Amino acid sequence: MNHPAFATPAPQRQAAILIVDDAPASLGLLQDILRNQGYRTFVATSGERALDLAQRLQPDLILLDVMLPGLDGLETCSRLKTLPRTADIPVIFVSACSDTDDIVAGFDRGAADYIAKPLRLPEVCARVRAQLQMRAASRSNTQQVERLRMIVDGMDEGLMLLGQDGRIQYANPASQRCLGTDARDLAGRGLAELLAEPSAQEIESWFDTRDTGAPGQARSAREVLVRHPDGSLRPMDLSLSPMASSEQLWVALLHDISHHKQSENALQRAALADPLTGIANRRHFDACLEREWQRAIRVAKPISLLVLDVDHFKLYNDLFGHAAGDQCLQAVASTLQSHALRATDLAARYGGEEFVLLLPDTSHGGAAKLAESIRHEVERLRVPNPRSTTSGFVTVSVGAATFVPSQFDDIRSLFLAADRAMYDAKAAGRNSTKAVEGGFAWEAMQQALAR
Ligand SMILES: Nc1nc2c(ncn2[C@@H]2O[C@H](COP(=O)(O)OP(=O)(O)OP(=O)(O)O)[C@@H](O)[C@H]2O)c(=O)[nH]1
């Protein structure tokens, strides 16, 4: 369907026409003809009056006699063409001077047409109609261009026109915002220059293959990283499609997806966090343990694991309720987290009231010290647990295991050793720690020492 904004202009029957002539006879004749055609007419008998009326009335067309007293028709036309409010109004000269030189002079002053006297009425009507249709068409084109500009300027998406070499020829305001650079600085720059690797290289090669005319997909859509002048890297969706025109141009659409990425990252983080305590969950811990275990094998370094369990927590829960129990677990978790000092250390809630602390590149002695420090810190929280037979406060038992793992060791053995150590600590009276060493290498060494 043809949208009204893009419809073909209809001829203007109600158009306003200013007739400028000092001879009453031809003025009257023209007025009669044009009124009969349904136009609105205004008259002026001098150039000065015509200038004044034209500015105030903004007619759609001016019929202008060449021979006028004072300011003649040619001069009047020149002035009309210099005034902003009248410059676009078409002027048709109406004159008895119909030599070629006169006609040429009229066009030189900016006239749209020239009608020679004596007037032939059907010709006058046809020429007036033609000028009005052209004016309506040109107005409609201007309106369409303005509407398109408004749409492009108001878009949230960045829109750019690129040459065949990938250089920017036009950038709308949204793309200037996306790229953090104004239109003047963008003009002529290669799109690839504004991107970080690997996107920059990909886009450059993409345009290189277009240049050589190599076959390939005409359209392209990808995620790129834009190098913003503030130093940040911003993820954006970039799509490139050819524009149907004789010179080959590409339309690039840029869509900032930083917000989506942030929420995606937040979701990913949430999927790895324990909702009650905010520290890592068991899934995150398992993935880290796998990675760090393999790394410890490669670099032949120790890896330690602490397993921590709250003592007599059932009694605490039964006395104070589940909500208070949750708060107690949060306090224990934050004490544990404060002992995850290195970037590679990971504190996690393993389940229920059991927690773990993974300590890559940490020796048996270091792990034992940390276990003791955590036990001590939890005791120092002095969270009352009146029914505890160990102490009047919430306490924890901590088991620590340290392996220098080899290919012969099973990854599960580290957790089992630390868990067993934690149960040994419980058995030893709770509110205590126990640290052990294990693994194939350690056992081999023990056996060698025993011989
Ligand atoms: N409030 C709360 N309680 C939990 C949560 N997860 C597990 N528990 C409770 O933790 C308690 C664990 O009790 P037990 O396994 O008997 O151990 P305990 O009472 O701590 O005794 P020992 O470990 O032998 O010192 C149970 O009462 C569980 O209901 C939780 O997310 N919130």
From TrEMBL:
Residues in PAS domain copies: 144-202
GO molecular function, one term: diguanylate cyclase activity
Coiled-coil features, chain-numbered ranges: none
Residue positions where 4-aspartylphosphate is found in the record: 65
Gene Ontology CC terms, in alphabetical order: plasma membrane
Annotated SMART domains: GGDEF (SM00267), PAS (SM00091), REC (SM00448)
EC code: 2.7.7.65
Residues spanning the membrane: none
A GO BP annotation: phosphorelay signal transduction system
Response regulatory domain residues: 16-132
UniProt keywords, alphabetically: Phosphoprotein
Reactions this protein catalyses: 2 GTP = 3',3'-c-di-GMP + 2 diphosphate
Pfam families in the cross-refs: GGDEF, PAS_9, Response_reg
Top-level enzyme category: transferase
Stretches assigned to the GGDEF domain: 301-438
PANTHER family: DIGUANYLATE CYCLASE DGCM-RELATED, REGULATORY COMPONENTS OF SENSORY TRANSDUCTION SYSTEM
Name of the featured protein: diguanylate cyclase
Originating species: Massilia yuzhufengensis
